[in-house]
Design a protein that fits this description.
A 3-stranded antiparallel beta sheet has the order 1-3-2. Strands 4-6-5 form a 3-stranded antiparallel beta sheet, with helices on one face. The relative contact order is 0.13. By secondary structure, it is mainly alpha-helical. Helices cover 48% and strands 10% of the residues.
């Protein structure tokens, strides 16, 4: 599957999203921008990540999602699959570099192979390609997105990292699946969804998390805690998920947090 990468999405320099930056930001909120240990290029890259993760707006003001993610951080800790899953979904939806990553199949990828694939998708061979690779690699190494979400597992014992393993997930929290589906519905206008039909769309939960449709259905339907956010209909022996056009992605997260109390 080929996907074109926009030049604007090589804006992070060589920096990835680092977990310690995010944790410090969640603790401090807006004062973080004047009270941090980041260098000028690091803070510039991190601000881009915060905007693309939808935690701040263009004026660096905190969004509704910031308070949801902060709540998850204090409730579930830094290794919350839901927390990092929300961040990953938004990066994939908002940044063509990370959308491109969703088009890659599960497997081992060496640096040379990934650079070649990036060149094909970008259409040029320049320093932006190497910066983009470094951003993806560092996000995998420096945040739970790599190992917790199976998006880039790297041999930490190797002095020279030669391969990145995209392993994917076997299960996901139901609220994370629904957040992804509502984001997709808002983008594409699709509120009646047969999960098998969307499995090859780059921004489907199957692609975003590299999870099989079977495991996705098992994760979503095994729990009743999020049933009020969708309806399930079995038609012609196929499972159709009906999302409510009266709800939206941020709203279901806020309601989910409220119920957790």
């Amino acid at each position: 599957m080929r996907y074109s990468i926009a030049v604007r999405d090589f804006k992070y320099g060589s920096f990835g999203l680092r977990q310690e930056w995010l944790y410090d930001f969640l603790k401090k909120g807006e004062p973080f921008f004047n009270d941090n240990s980041l260098g000028p290029r690091q803070i510039e890259a991190f601000i881009y990540y915060l905007r693309d993760s939808e935690l701040i707006d263009k004026k660096k003001k905190l969004t509704r999602l910031y308070y949801i993610v902060r709540d998850l951080y204090y409730r579930e800790g830094g290794n919350s699959q839901t927390l990092w899953g929300i961040i990953w979904i938004n990066l994939c939806f908002n940044v063509s570099l990370y959308t491109w990553w969703t088009t890659l199949e599960i497997g081992n990828y060496c640096r040379k192979e990934l650079l070649e694939k990036l060149i094909v998708s970008y259409g040029k061979n320049n320093k932006s390609i190497r910066s983009g690779f470094n951003s993806i690699r560092e996000t995998s190494v420096k945040s739970p997105i790599g190992e917790l979400l199976g998006q880039g597992i790297i041999d930490r014992n190797s002095r020279i990292t030669r391969e990145i393993l995209k392993a994917g997930c076997n299960s996901l929290p139901p609220i994370l699946i629904l957040y992804n589906l509502y984001k997709l519905a808002e983008k594409e206008g699709i509120y009646r969804i047969e999960l098998q039909d969307i499995e090859d769309i780059p921004l489907s939960p199957q692609r975003v998390f590299a999870i099989s449709t079977q495991n996705l259905e098992r994760s979503l339907f095994k729990s009743s805690e999020c049933e009020s956010f969708y309806k399930l209909s079995i038609e012609d022996r196929r499972n159709y998920v009906y999302l409510s056009e009266d709800l939206n992605s941020i709203g279901i997260l806020e309601e989910y947090i409220r119920r957790k109390g």
